[in-house]
C-alpha cells in the first residue's frame, strides 16, 4: 500500500467483491473500467457498454485491435461467447429501463444526499457528459470508485456538491482510497476503513459527517 | 450464469394470482402455447394463478392458448388492440356477459407503451387516437402546430415468450413474423419466461443476429416442436 | 360490371393504379388487401404489414402455409427477395414516423373533413381497433376503398361521421364502387365517376356536397 | 426499386448549405469516412455545403472525418454527448474561440430523441438530466412519485451512414459495435445516404438479420475496404 492509501486497482478490486454472480454491470470510462479485472473466482458478471455490446471481455493484444469493437471509452475490447450487439436506443433502454444491476462510476464529488458530480469541472473548457446522466437513473445500484480527496487534498465526499450535478440522490455506495461508505437516508454511513487510519483522521478528510451504524470493519485488500 | 430451467413447471414458478402477464404473439404467430397450457394445467389442479390481467395483441382464438385461459376462468382483464378473431367465442361470451374487462389500445400505441415500459420512458406523445373515444380523458399537447395524446408506459409482472433459439444467457432469436411483440414484452416484464424451440451453446447465436439480448430474459425452457395456435385451431383442438 | 357498380376487385384495381413505383404501402385488413394483386406492370411497390414484415408477396398455395408468416389479417403470406422482419415497435415506427407512402383502408364512413370511421359500429358488441388509429396519422397519404353506400343504401360519404372516429382529417382520397373523390379543404372533390351514372344520381347517393373542380373523368376499369 | 448510386458524389447530391446532418458512428466505429471526406472535397471545390449542424455522439478526433469537416470550416454547430476525444483539437479550438455552437445532450437522451424523430413520437419523458444544468428550462412532470424531464424528438435533413452489407432495396447490416447510432439516424433523416462495404442481391441478407429495413434508406453507394477513423488517426493522417 503506497502512501497509506489504496491504489486505483485496489479500490477497483474492493468494488468488484460486491458484484453478485450473474450481475449485469456497466463500468464508467477510465479508472472504473479496472473493476472488470477483479471479478471474484466463480462469479460470472456480464459487462454492458453504452455503445451497444453485452458480454465483452478483456482488451485484445496490441496490434490485434478491431476498431469496430470498442467500449464506451473507445478502447478496443474482445467478445465472450454469448455476446450481443444492439443499437444505441436499445442500449439505453437497458440502462434507463432498470435492467442493469449496478453501474460503477468515477466522481469529482459525491454528496451525503447521494448527489453525484462527475461530468463538468465547472471551469469552462469543453463540457462532455456521455452516458453518465442516463446511467445514474437507470442501474438498480449506483456505486462510485474514487480517491478519498482531490489531488490538492480537498474532500470529494461533501455535504452538497459544488460542481454541476450529474444526478440527484442516486449514489448508494462509495469505494474510496481509504474507506467504503454507504449513502443511506441522506447520510454517509461508514462501513469499512483502512485499519491504520483513525476515525478522526478519516472524518477530517471527509466534507460531511460520517455516521457509524452497526460497526465499522477493516478495509482489507490484496497487494495488486 | 445459467437461465435454463428443466421444465415448464419450473419455468412458471412465481406466476401468481392477480398478476399482469404479457403474452407474446400476434394471432397464432409467436403464441407460447406450451407455457400457456402449462399455466392452465396448474390452474385446474390448484386454482391458481387466477384473476390475471393479460396483455396481448388479441384476445384468443378457438379453444387453445389465451382463449383456453379465458374458458378456464383465469382471466380478469385483457389489454389488447384487436379482440376479434376467426373464433372469438371465449372472449366474446365473457365480455358480453360483463365477466371480463377490456382495455382497447391502438396497436402501435400498445407496442410503444410496452417498449416505453422496458426502456424507462414513463410517458410519450403520439398522434394515434387523437380525437377518438380511445383518447378520451387523456392529456394532449401541441408540438409544431399538431396535437398529440400523452400515453403511459405499460409494464407487467410476467412475460411469456416463444423464441426460436436461445442460449443459457438468455439471448434469443425468433422465427419469421413470430417476432412481433415478444422482444418488447421481454423488456417490460419483471420476470421474463421464454420457451425456446432449441437451446444452443453461448456463441452459437451470431452476436449480430441476437434479437433479444439475454439481459431482458430470466428463464429459458426448451420446448422442441412447439404447437402452433393456428394449426391447433384448424384441427379443432380444445385444451 | 354487376349492378352497375364496381366490384371490390375493381375498386382495388383502381386504387392500385395510383401507387407509384417504389412506394411503401400498407393495406388494411380484408378487402383493401386485394389492392396488392393489381400493381401496374413495371412498378414495384413494397408492402408493409403491421406485424413486422416488409416486402411480402402473394398468399401461398393451400397446404403450404407457414403460420409464423402471416399478415395483419392473420392470413398466410410469402416473402419476396429482400424482405425484412422486425418487431412491433419498429413496425409502428415505420407507420407513425411517416415512412409509408400510402395506406389504403376500408371505411364505415368518411366525412368531407377527411374524418374516418372504420373501427366501431357503435352498436355494442366487441370493439377492435388494431393498427388503424396509428396508420391514419402515419402514412403520407391515406386512401379509402369502399362501397359508395351501405348495404341498406345509406351514404358512406357524409358531412360528419356518426360512428366513432378512427382519425380526424386524415383521408385525402376515396375510391368507391361508383367514383373517385378527393378530399381537399374539407370538401369532397369529384374526380372520376362511372359513365352511366349522372352527377345528380351520384349526389343523391352521397351524404355531402360533391364539388366539381377542373372536370370529372370517366372511371374506367377492366373486367376482373 | 434500386437505391444504388454510382459514386460518392451522386450519393451526396442535395446535401446543401445550412442543413442538419446526422453522422453515424461512435468515435471511429461506424464513422462513414468516405462520405464525410467526399463532402469536404466538394466544400473545398465549391464552397458548399457549409453552415452545417452535425449530430453525432462525438465532435471529431484528429484531422479526419468530422474533425476535418470542422477544420475545413463547414460546421456551424454540433449536437452531441461527448465532444472530447484522444485528439479533440479541431472542435476544442473553434469552440473556445466561440466559432462553433454546441448542444450537449446526455447520450441516452440523444439516442432516444433520434429514435423518437424516426418513430413519430414528438416528445417523451426521461429521468436523465433531471436536476442538472442540461435540463434547465425544460418542462418536468411527475409519474408515480418520480420526476422526469420532457425531451423533444430530433430529426435531420440528412443522415450519413456506414453499413456492412446492403441490397438495392436499402436493407442494411452493420459490423459489430459500428452499429451504434446508425439504425436510429437512418430512421430520423429526410434523406438517408449509406456507404456499404458490400452490396449484395436482394435475399442475400437473411430477413431475420436485417438491422435497418430498406424503408429507412434512400441511397446506397458501395465503398469496399472503407477507411477506419481510429486507424487513420493512429497513422497521423489529415484530410
TrEMBL record, chains A, C:
Pfam families in the cross-refs: CoA_trans
GO-annotated molecular function: CoA-transferase activity
Protein name: CoA transferase subunit B
InterPro entries xrefs: 3-oxoacid_CoA-transf_B, CoA_trans_fam_I, NagB/RpiA_transferase-like
UniProt key word Transmembrane helix: no
Key words, A-Z: Transferase
Organism: Arsenicitalea aurantiaca
NCBIfam families referenced in this protein's UniProt entry, alphabetically: pcaJ_scoB_fam (TIGR02428)
Similarity section: Belongs to the 3-oxoacid CoA-transferase subunit B family.
UniProtKB/TrEMBL annotation, chains B, D:
InterPro entries listed in its UniProt record: 3-oxoacid_CoA-transf_A, CoA_trans_fam_I, CoA_transf_BS, NagB/RpiA_transferase-like
Transferase in keyword set: yes
Keyword terms of this UniProt record: Transferase
SUPFAM superfamilies: NagB/RpiA/CoA transferase-like
Signal peptide: none
MF (Gene Ontology): CoA-transferase activity
Keyword Transcription regulation among record annotations: no
Taxonomic superkingdom: Bacteria
Family under the similarity heading: Belongs to the 3-oxoacid CoA-transferase subunit A family.
UniProt protein name: 3-oxoacid CoA-transferase subunit A
Species name: Arsenicitalea aurantiaca
Amino acid at each position: 500500500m503506497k502512501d497509506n492509501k489504496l491504489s486505483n486497482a485496489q479500490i477497483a478490486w474492493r468494488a468488484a467483491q460486491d458484484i453478485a454472480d450473474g450481475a449485469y454491470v456497466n463500468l464508467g470510462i477510465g479508472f472504473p473500467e479496472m473493476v472488470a479485472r477483479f471479478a471474484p473466482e466463480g462469479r460470472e458478471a456480464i459487462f454492458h457498454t453504452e455503445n451497444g455490446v453485452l458480454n465483452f471481455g478483456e482488451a485484445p493484444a496490441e496490434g490485434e485491435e478491431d476498431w469496430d469493437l470498442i467500449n464506451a471509452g473507445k478502447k478496443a475490447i474482445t467478445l465472450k461467447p454469448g455476446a450481443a450487439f444492439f443499437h444505441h436506443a436499445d442500449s439505453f433502454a437497458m440502462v434507463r429501463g432498470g435492467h442493469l444491476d449496478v453501474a460503477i462510476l468515477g466522481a469529482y464529488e459525491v454528496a451525503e444526499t447521494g448527489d453525484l458530480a462527475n461530468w463538468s469541472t465547472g471551469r469552462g473548457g469543453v463540457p462532455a457528459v456521455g452516458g453518465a446522466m442516463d446511467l445514474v437513473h437507470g442501474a438498480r445500484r449506483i456505486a462510485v470508485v474514487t480517491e478519498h480527496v482531490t489531488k490538492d487534498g480537498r474532500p470529494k465526499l461533501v455535504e452538497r456538491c459544488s460542481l454541476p450535478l450529474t444526478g440527484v440522490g442516486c449514489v448508494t455506495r462509495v469505494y474510496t482510497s481509504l474507506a467504503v461508505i454507504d449513502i443511506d437516508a441522506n447520510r454517509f454511513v461508514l462501513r469499512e476503513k483502512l485499519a491504520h487510519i483513525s476515525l478522526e483522521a478519516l472524518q477530517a478528510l471527509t466534507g460531511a459527517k460520517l455516521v457509524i451504524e452497526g460497526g465499522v470493519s477493516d478495509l482489507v485488500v490484496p497487494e495488486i | 450464469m445459467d437461465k435454463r430451467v428443466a421444465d415448464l413447471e419450473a419455468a412458471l414458478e412465481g406466476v401468481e394470482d392477480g398478476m399482469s402477464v404479457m403474452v407474446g404473439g400476434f394471432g397464432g404467430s409467436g403464441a407460447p402455447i406450451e407455457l400457456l397450457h402449462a399455466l392452465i394445467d396448474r390452474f385446474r389442479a390448484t386454482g391458481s394463478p387466477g384473476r390475471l390481467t393479460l396483455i396481448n395483441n388479441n384476445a384468443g382464438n378457438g379453444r387453445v392458448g389465451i382463449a383456453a385461459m379465458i374458458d378456464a376462468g383465469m382471466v380478469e382483464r385483457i389489454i389488447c388492440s384487436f379482440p376479434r378473431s376467426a373464433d372469438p367465442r371465449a372472449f366474446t361470451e365473457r365480455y358480453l356477459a360483463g365477466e371480463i374487462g377490456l382495455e382497447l389500445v391502438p396497436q402501435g400505441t400498445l407496442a410503444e407503451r410496452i417498449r416505453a415500459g422496458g426502456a424507462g420512458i414513463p410517458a410519450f406523445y403520439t398522434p394515434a387516437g387523437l380525437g377518438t373515444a380511445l383518447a378520451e380523458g387523456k392529456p394532449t399537447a401541441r408540438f409544431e402546430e399538431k396535437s398529440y395524446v400523452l400515453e403511459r408506459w405499460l409494464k407487467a409482472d410476467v412475460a411469456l415468450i416463444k423464441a426460436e433459439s436461445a442460449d443459457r444467457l438468455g439471448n434469443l432469436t425468433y422465427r419469421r413474423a413470430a417476432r412481433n411483440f415478444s422482444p418488447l414484452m421481454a423488456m417490460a416484464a419483471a420476470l421474463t419466461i421464454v420457451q425456446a424451440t432449441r437451446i444452443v451453446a453461448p456463441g452459437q447465436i451470431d452476436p449480430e443476429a441476437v434479437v433479444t439480448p439475454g439481459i431482458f430474459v430470466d428463464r429459458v425452457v426448451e420446448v422442441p416442436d412447439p404447437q402452433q395456435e393456428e394449426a391447433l385451431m384448424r384441427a379443432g383442438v380444445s385444451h
